[in-house]
Design brief:
single chain, about 180 residues, mainly alpha, Rna Polymerase Sigma Factor, Chain: A, Arc Repressor Mutant, subunit A, 2 domains, 9 helices, elongated
Length: about 180
């Protein structure tokens, strides 16, 4: 019996629920690149992003029975698992500690690349550089990475009211700069 080279979404889900390893290999081959790029956008470090991707596929394999096609497509379900796993990593104490203990590379007095929002293609980069670094980080987390204010407060370990005030202040400053 020849194995199918392509699957419809319904056939793929049925094969995965039957614990078909060739269907899982097909799933990995066809979706890992997309999921990895989404994870990398959130985690912004290739090594932990690869670890998260591996966790995601293990969770997909284990939890495929909980997938409900009435709630959305298979990719959307996998995307939510990827996003949640990425955010869980960012929130973990071990990851935060690891970030604090990393070796400084290059010029210590140079620009901090982690706080810059890649907005050159729409012309906002020069205006964002005029904001304080702490405000740029909050805007990046909120608008570029899609975190809620509550999630940002947890990630940055600052009060929710402070997050809201600083984001509003940053937006008002940007508005003035753009005039």
């Amino acid at each position: 019996m020849a194995l199918p080279t392509t699957y419809s979404e319904q056939d793929l889900v049925a094969a995965l629920k039957a614990k078909d390893k060739s269907a899982f290999a097909y799933l990995y081959d066809h979706y890992s690149g997309s999921l990895y790029s989404i994870i990398l956008q959130i985690v912004q470090n290739p090594t932990p992003a690869k670890d998260v991707l591996q966790e995601v596929f293990i969770n997909i394999w284990r939890r495929i029975d909980s997938y409900d096609p009435a709630k959305g497509s298979l990719f959307t379900w996998m995307l939510n698992i990827s996003r949640n796993a990425s955010i869980d990593l960012l929130r973990s104490a071990g990851y935060k500690n690891n970030l604090k203990n990393q070796e400084l590379k290059g010029n210590v007095y140079g620009k901090d690349q982690s706080t810059q929002i890649n907005t050159d293609h729409i012309g906002l980069g020069k205006f964002l550089e005029k904001l304080r670094p702490d405000l740029r980080v909050l805007l990046d987390l909120s608008y570029a990475k899609g975190f809620t204010h509550e999630e940002i407060a947890q990630i940055e370990d600052i009060p929710l009211g402070t997050v809201k005030t600083r984001i509003r202040s940053a937006l008002l400053q940007l508005r003035e700069l753009l005039k």
